[in-house]
Amino acid sequence: MKIKEFDYNLPRELIAVEPSKKRDQARLLVLSRDSGLISDSYFYDLPNYLKAGDVLVFNNSKVIPARLSGFLQDRKYEILLVKKIKNNRWECWVKPGRRLKVGQTLTFGPRLRGIYLERINDIFIFEFDLDNDDFYQEIEKIGQMPIPPYILRARNSGNLPQYTKDDLDNYQTIFASKTGSVAAPTAGLHFNSKLLEQLNKNGIQQEMVTLHISLGTFQPVTTESVEGFQIHSEYFEVDSETAKRLNQAKTEGRRIIAVGTTSVRVIESVTKDGLIQPMSGETNIYIYPKYKFKFVDGIVTNFHLPKSSLLLLVSAFATRDQIMMAYEHAIKKNYQFYSYGDGMLII
Questions:
Q1: Which domain holds residue 292?
Q2: Domain finish residue from 143, 175, 205
Q3: If we measure between CA atoms, which residue out of 112, 104, 171, 119 comes closest to residue 139?
């Protein structure tokens, strides 16, 4: 299977540079896997497409202000936290990276410094002098939200500010509680308290899992063959009570609908013999067409980048032809794409 089969052309003006004024007013494309039919709606109508007993599974990971400015004397470096390795060590992207030498220490603020330990391809390993809560509290003061590069480029082309104060709230789900992501679980951005309350009134069960998203989520598939790609790994957690409730719902024949590809990755990673196992750890599950889903019955998701692992995942859940047809429809109907854009329900 060739990755070029999962490419498409998106007009620049359809890249969303900011979200809907109200989260649930984003548009919603609904794709039926059985019939292939497509319908146009809005997120506030999501309860009308679900039924009592359905279970929505959200990713409650919280995005950190992962973009930092580091200084070495009078030279400035832009540091993007990619993934926590352990304690106070992080994988990072650095710009300009070619000038930095192993062993040099950058100053990020009055309380935070980091020493550059080694480089592995385009990843720089840093050890900071703060860790855990102390580290997170400090970067809350000095960092910026890691708005995806395609949004920054789109803002630049429209002569708009790269960052706004609104991004601090806009690029975070309202149910985020477990600190650790460097990118948002964007399908969850469409849910506000009003919509969650309506879903609850309609008998839609809501569950939380955790997957800390790394910046590998934005990386395109770089191999010509889909099968030859090595996907990134990410940390996840599923507790025993959540697993118990999800397993009960499944055995009762109720639908499990993952909110976001990150929730899909968690659920499918921990399913064995048809049941979810409570656990935590790293997953590098790679879902592409021909994958047989074990637990997920529906997906709420955004529109994904061409030739990305996320586009492959939704093409595995529906079919490549259905997804490409849905994307073509969305482009014709001027849906907004990517992290701040509109979304889909595939069911």
A1: 3-63+167-346
A2: 143
A3: 112
